[in-house]
Specification:
alpha/beta, Rossmann fold, eight-stranded mixed beta sheet, 10 helices, 8 strands, 42% helix
Amino acid sequence: MSGLMAGKVALVTGAGGGIGRGIALAMAAAGARVVVNDLGVSMSGEGGDSGPAQRVVEEIRAAGGEAVANTDSVSTWAGANAIVQCALDNFGRIDAVVNNAGNLRDRMFFKMNEEEWRSVIDVHLNGTFFVSRAAANYFKDQESGAYVHMTSTSGLIGNLGQANYSAAKLGIAALSKSIALDMQRFNVRSNCIAPFAWSRMTSSIPAETPEEKARVAKLQKMEAGKIGPVAVYLASPAASEVNGQIFAVRANEIILMSQPRPVRSVHMSEGWTPESVGEVAMPAMRSSFFKLERSPDVISWDPI
């Protein structure tokens, strides 16, 4: 097959449905041989079924591509290494890792329990690290490779009832930057996508108030398959000059997201006291304070 990923091997986690499925299909259409990883569990982590991953594999094969299903867990070191080994055993190499696997345990911070915190951190943040680390030595040795990680505006900007998810997703953005810095000498790149798309995860968003219903109606217009083209490009050699960046993708719109940089500073030659901080520093910087906004408050326009 021809395309931006011709001759490459791509590993996509959480690829049994939604955004991951769209990315796996797009990778195959671009010429990649694909490892379709998915546990096949419910959003609460129950069950386990090879069916979702295998169905995507069958879609790829029916279109003339090559793919293999994998049901190992990203949330353990052993599982992550087994996923990468699956690529090596079946296709002899690995060229791109798309860290898409995810779960949700939404709860207001003051009600969130330990299991709800740990389960989300384990899949999103630990899973992204484990799978990325499992591929790192192969990328390093072949002096090529690309990571595409899924972050979220829930972490980059903020959201209600998602302290676990937001912390994990902002952590992924920082992890991606560290990977980009550490691996650039080996010609390995790392970038993030913050996807806006209607999927199994977003279908759990409450839709009780008029505002919530309007937000869900907007999300339902954003197809999961729209994320695939950006993921393919970032994973491909065509994106050789793109590294350490964060892109939001919503419908037909691609947004380059800002990253934290100094905004203002104040200096006191004799040093600061708690009182002078309150009397001088805070008033001087107050006009540049960020509002306590949520993701839909900041990215509030209709999808294009």
